[in-house]
Specification:
The complex is a heterodimer.
Chain A (H helix, E strand, L loop, with lengths): L2 E10 L2 E11 L2 E6 L6 H9 L6 E6 L2 E2 L4 H8 L2 E4 L11 H11 L5 H14 L15 H12 L6 E5 L7 H12 L4 E5 L3 H7 L2 E6 L2 E6 L1 H6 L5 E4 L8 E4 L5 E4 L9 E2 L4 H10 L13
Parallel strand pairs in A: 3-8, 3-9, 6-7, 7-8
Antiparallel strand pairs in A: 1-2, 1-4, 4-5, 9-10, 11-13, 11-14, 12-13
Chain B lengths: L7 H8 L5 H13 L1 H13 L6 H13 L5 H8 L4 H8 L5 H20 L3 H8 L2 H12 L5 H4 L6 H26 L11 H15 L4 H21 L4 H4 L1 H20 L12
Helix pairs in contact in B: 1-4, 2-3, 3-4, 5-6, 7-8, 7-9, 7-11, 9-11, 9-12, 9-13, 12-13, 12-15
Chain lengths: 290, 274
């Protein structure tokens, strides 16, 4: 079941947060990269139906988010959404919070709802914290609790805005395991490029409200192939340079000093930095999905 | 330890969620201290073709033990037939402390003002119906921390708004009524503000389907002030407390209730994000 955006845009007065965008999102994990203010959260909120688009139409699993009330409700039944920030009622217990969201997601059969609450809490490793009040949970545990509510009911479209913020390496690895086992569409907005390279089949880069890149991780890495070097001195005109633990300087882009620097394998972060440093070509996207 | 143990029929009823709350609590308490019952549960579940093994039973046990325990007044609501999902929404209304504080503070303030001005009747009739309205506005403007999570769910936003309103008014109305009863000069007015308050809250909820909460409640409140001051200036303030006036308020409140029930827009309810 795919999700489609057709000429979707969002403006706040004269400020355009998202220019007209057309995308089809199939199953698998899709990473959404971009600087702050690029329009990532706007796109996720539009897809979740928390925000209405200024123009265009959105369909989730065949149901129009931008259609009639009945159609929007049908679409909402198929969406799991993790906002960037969740303000918890701190007096609630972990299970009480997820139970409340389960009710909002129309789990009317009480025993089945409680089993589902238990399932998602176990999935994120909070099964033994179910009866603990949220104010007693750590930041990482609260983030996992927020993720748990998004996983309720096996959604067709799972939208996660910065899911790994506040998680330690083990918890991030655990979340990757959970997400990679899903068979639905998972859209992750993140600044953690290592999450993208470890998890995503496809990457979309947004910049200033426009799709700058849309393709596979390999295609994104190809942007930086042969353009990342390591040597005793920084490359001239490099987008980014830093001294590594070996004492050598890693340079992203620029012209390396002949004879002393060697080309190294680029990372998704290198490719992203180079992509951002390259002027946009009239809004033309790169990659296989463009 | 008592000689009582959980029999197979009780286990199956527990797993299916058919036990009443007292029996459910008794099973949960007992099983935590009785290894024999834990073993019997396992044996019973393994033998039961309905459950297909003990794992589903244990899942149900774990789910029930971890399930949120509701306060006594909410358990009572469930016993008298309020749907479980409504009770869960009401249980989540713990974030309504600000509206409740505003309700109590507003009730006291309206009584203090009325007791210290020459026209106590005018002051109380003007202010008392605004107290529930103030609480409703506060309940929807900024105090629902889960609005961002609630907005993209299929649950009717209008129903959510009405349930939160009910939780707010459950404090605002008794607080204001109590003040009217306690303050001697307001005895005669202790109840006559209730129907106007109902009208104002209903009007605000109808407007909430189109406007953000502060505007909806502001319009309703300004309208009420205009009505009261207009009647006062024309010498007809008594119409508010008279039988005809109260009947008119009852009819308007009923009409607003019908409009609310028939309202189909959910995205805009609660002044939701545009």
């Amino acid at each position: 079941m795919s999700t489609t955006l057709r000429d979707v845009s969002k403006s706040y007065g004269r400020t355009v947060a998202l220019h007209p965008t057309t995308l089809t999102l199939g199953t698998g994990v899709i990473g959404l990269l971009g600087p702050n203010g690029a329009g990532k959260t706007t796109m996720l909120r539009l897809l979740s139906s928390a925000l209405a688009p200024t123009t265009g139409s959105i369909r989730v699993a065949g149901h129009a988010v931008t259609g009639s009330h009945a159609e929007r409700t049908e679409a909402r039944r198929r969406i799991g959404y993790l906002p960037q920030e969740v303000v918890f009622p701190r007096g609630m217990t972990a299970a009480g919070f997820v139970d409340y969201v389960a009710v909002l997601k129309e789990w009317r059969d009480t025993p089945a709802r409680h089993r589902e609450v238990r399932r998602v809490l176990d999935l994120v490793g909070l099964g033994d914290r179910a009866t603990v009040r949220i104010r007693a949970l750590s930041g990482g545990q609260r983030r996992r609790l927020a993720i748990a509510q998004a996983l309720l009911g096996a959604p067709d479209l799972l939208i996660l805005d910065e899911p790994t913020t506040g998680l330690d390496p083990e918890q991030r690895a655990s979340l990757r395991g959970i997400l990679s086992a899903l068979t639905c569409t998972v859209l992750i907005s993140t600044h953690q490029t290592e999450d993208v390279s470890a998890l995503c089949d496809r990457v979309i880069v947004l910049d200033a409200g426009r799709t700058r890149f849309d393709g596979t991780v390999a295609e994104l890495l190809a942007v930086a192939a042969g353009r990342v070097h390591q040597g005793p001195a920084p490359s001239e005109g490099a987008v980014g340079t830093w001294k590594t633990g070996t004492g050598l300087v890693r340079s992203v882009g620029g012209t390396p000093e002949p004879g002393t620097s060697i080309a190294v394998d680029p990372t998704v972060e290198d490719a992203y930095l180079l992509l951002r440093a390259t002027p946009a070509r009239g809004g033309a996207d790169q990659g296989a999905h463009a | 330890m008592s000689g009582w143990h959980v029999d197979p029929a009780t286990w199956q009823a527990y797993a299916a969620g058919h036990l009443d709350m007292a029996a459910q609590a008794a099973v949960e308490t007992h099983v935590t201290t009785c290894p024999a019952c834990r073993d019997s549960a396992r044996r019973v579940a393994e033998d039961d073709p309905m459950t297909g093994g003990y794992e589903p039973v244990w899942e149900a046990v774990h789910a029930a033990i971890g399930a949120p325990r509701q306060p006594a007044h909410l358990r009572w609501l469930r016993r008298v037939g309020v749907p479980d999902d409504a009770v869960v929404v009401l249980a989540a209304a713990g974030d309504l402390r600000l509206p409740w504080a505003l309700a109590v503070g507003g009730a006291v303030l309206s009584a203090v003002v009325a007791a210290h001005v020459a026209r106590a009747e005018l002051a109380y009739l003007l202010l008392a119906p605004l107290v529930p309205l103030l609480a409703v506005a506060a309940a929807f403007e900024a105090t629902d921390p889960l609005r961002e999570l609630a907005a993209p769910t299929p649950f009717s936003k209008l129903r959510l708004a009405l349930l939160r309103t009910a939780a707010t008014l459950a404090v605002a109305v008794p607080a204001t009524a109590l003040v009217g009863v306690v303050v001697p000069v307001l005895h005669a007015l202790a109840c006559v503000w209730l129907l106007p308050a109902l009208c104002l809250s209903g009007a605000a909820l109808v407007l909430l389907t189109r406007l953000p909460a502060r505007w909806a409640c502001g319009v309703a409140g300004a309208g009420w002030a205009a009505v009261v001051l207009g009647l006062e200036s024309s010498g007809h303030l008594g119409a508010v407390t008279g039988g005809v006036g109260q009947t008119a308020f009852a009819l308007v409140a009923t009409a607003l209730g019908v409009v609310l029930v028939r309202a189909t827009t959910t995205l805009q309810a609660m002044g939701a994000t545009r």
